[in-house]
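Translate sequence into structure tokens.
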Amino acid sequence: MLLALALIWGTSYILIKKGLIAFTPVELACLRLSISFVASVPFAIKALSAIPRDKFSAVFLIGFFGNGIPAFLFALSLTKSGSAVTGILNSLSPLWTLLVGIYFFKVVVSRQKVSGVIVGFMGAMVLVLGKRGENFQTDALYSLLPVAATLCYGISSNIMKEKMQTGNPIYVTSLALMTVGLPSLIGLFFTSAPAKIIGGQVWPSFACIAILSLFGTLIAWMLFYRLVQRTDALFAASVTYLAPIVAIGWGLLDGEVLNFLQLLGMLLILTGVYFTTSGKTMRIAGQTS
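Result follows.
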């Protein structure tokens, strides 16, 4: 499941790149959440009766922090920050997951897992820094947006593990997307995206966003939440280390050349993921999870 997620989210980079050819980052975020929401409506209707009412607040927070806020924060960041900077900062997700789990959810983590998080982040930095031609220019304020987005991921992952351990991940995902997808769908009509789509000149980019929505958001988050339930939040968050490796693979197919720094970064990432995924399991409130 971790490798499947890495493949899906690693492929998302090239889909986002193609989508941004015709749409602004904010339009892309609105389209991505709106399409995912529309596709998940049949599941969301069933989820309304399948998920207990006292769990609705947790699902709302999962959708708000896991899907809604990050989509727009990353979109806004891309307007002023280079993709390399955003890629590095996105790798903060496991670190925030670790810190939020320890300080707010009383999660106990082995030193081996902590070492894995640190080594994996170092590998992500080396991997991105080793890519030739990357844009590392950024606005200081806008560079904080991906940091806030990864903090949101850490909060969402821990809430999922703590509050929705036994919930059906399909229903959790669909209901979570409803909480952010409906406002995004309404907001979409205040952008120029509908006019672009009706004009018919942006269909290749729109098709990439549609694929991104169905696989990179809807299906991927179903897999992610299931992975959180079966393992722990930190294990699942380590996918953000593996996704850039998949993205590099797509780059190689597109004619890019792999250099020594990127190979070193991949080695560090794989080492970090090994430590993160093979350490002692997290324990929440004294219970093995």
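Note: The first strand starts at residue 107 and ends at 108.
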